[in-house]
Design goal:
Layout lengths: L1 H8 L7 H6 L5 H5 L12 E12 L3 E11 L2 H5 L5 H55 L5 H35 L16 H10 L7 H24 L3 E11 L2 E10 L8 H23 L3 H27 L6 H35 L2 H4 L15
Antiparallel strand pairs: 1-2, 2-3, 3-4
Helix pairs in contact: 5-6, 5-8, 5-11, 7-10, 8-9, 10-11
Length: 383
């Protein structure tokens, strides 16, 4: 019992954001890249087969040999190193895993702050509903104002239920990543401010290469290589050669055989169909690549625009909070409006940070600098 109380009240057992982010290095998609095999072999043989036969019909005859199945020239050329491609995909998988954990942390921690604001909002809405009820009985307010107050209160209660359900889902994901599932509390995120986001965007404004564009280029290259291989196999005239030795009594015969393919005499419909599919895939990927060319500029503009709207709303909220009235109902409504604006500001801040995370992924900042907490003002180390 004493141990349970110590664990409950001791903040050392709360999860730090960095502990959660560190689990990205154990993500299954990221680890899968460790099992990827290298395909940079310059071996010209697709496969080598050994064969053996022995016959006894009065005369013993034994044949042994090797058959060398050749790669087509484009297939052999495509065996160049793909280490860069694998490295890009591996870094991207880590960046995506980190982004998912950042978003869950944001949703869980800011969701807790939203619940506190929402509770204040509900308390103010309930008091307003009670005041509107009394005022309606005293014929000092309209039925419309009463119904609006009632609808507002019920809407907030529904929002509270949805937010609680959302936090439970996020909590389960945190538990899955945590080494101690009972430690569901998260230490302070030490979140950056929106001004820090704007400053970071300015520092990276010269970056134009996007992760989506780089991945699209790599995929186009892979599809183009596959297309060359399919075409090469279809037109490959030198298929294989074999070397064998036949032993018959005191006679030993060495034979060399060639397998030649004559394309004009046949038609590989499957190869043609495969080529058509690859040509269409390359065309579609080219379109995707064109659509990602200004992805960073669009994201940067959206984030900066959201920051300006956030600052404007924050300024208006401060001005409105100073207004007072002699009418209690008006003051009650002002209080409700103030709580509503606080909640909306928190929603806007979360949206800005979510967009910023997407920007960090697209600009490859998360890929190149995964070992620091980019949402922490002090840039805490993860590893």
């Amino acid at each position: 019992m004493l141990l349970a109380l110590i664990l409950f009240f001791n903040p050392a057992f709360a999860l730090t954001p960095e502990q959660v982010l560190k689990t990205a290095w154990t993500d299954k998609t990221y680890l899968a890249h460790e099992d990827i095999q290298e395909t940079d072999s310059k071996n010209p043989f697709r496969s080598v087969e050994a064969f053996y036969s022995h016959e006894r019909n009065g005369n013993s005859e034994t044949e042994v040999g090797l058959k060398f199945n050749m790669k087509s020239y484009p297939e052999w050329r495509s065996g160049s190193s793909q280490t860069d491609t694998h490295q890009i995909l591996k870094e991207s998988s880590l960046a995506w895993a980190l982004r998912d954990r950042y978003n869950v942390l944001l949703g869980y921690v800011l969701g807790g702050q939203k619940l506190k604001l929402l509770n204040n909002f509900i308390e103010a809405a309930e008091k307003n509903l009670q005041a509107q009820t009394l005022a309606l009985r005293a014929v000092k307010t309209s039925t419309k104002a009463f119904l609006e107050a009632k609808d507002e209160f019920l809407r907030l209660k529904r929002s509270q239920s949805l937010l609680l359900a959302e936090r439970q889902v996020l909590k389960k994901r945190l538990d899955r990543w945590s080494l101690e599932p009972e430690s569901t509390e998260i230490e302070d995120l030490d979140l950056i401010e929106v001004d820090d986001v704007a400053k970071s965007l300015k520092e990276h404004e010269k970056v134009t290469q996007t992760l989506s564009g780089k991945l699209a280029k790599e995929e186009i290259w892979q599809l183009d290589q596959e297309l060359k291989i399919v075409k090469g196999r279809e037109n490959q005239w030198f298929k294989s050669f074999d070397v064998s030795q036949t032993a018959k009594k005191d006679e030993h015969v060495v034979e060399v055989g060639l397998t030649i393919f004559l394309p004009p005499l046949g038609s590989d419909d499957w190869a043609k169909q495969k080529q058509n599919e690859l040509i269409l895939k390359i065309a579609l990927k080219q379109r995707d690549l064109e659509n990602t060319s200004d992805r960073l500029q669009v994201l940067r503009f959206q984030i900066l625009n959201s920051i300006e709207l956030y600052k404007l709303a924050r300024t208006n909220q401060v001005v409105a909070a100073k207004s007072k009235s002699l009418d209690p109902l008006v003051n009650m409504q002002t209080k409700i409006t103030s709580e509503k604006e606080k909640l909306e500001l928190l929603n806007q801040r979360q949206s800005i940070l979510n967009q910023y995370l997407e920007y960090l992924v697209e600009s490859e900042v998360l890929s190149k600098e995964p070992g620091i907490n980019h949402l922490s003002r002090s840039k805490k180390a993860i590893l």
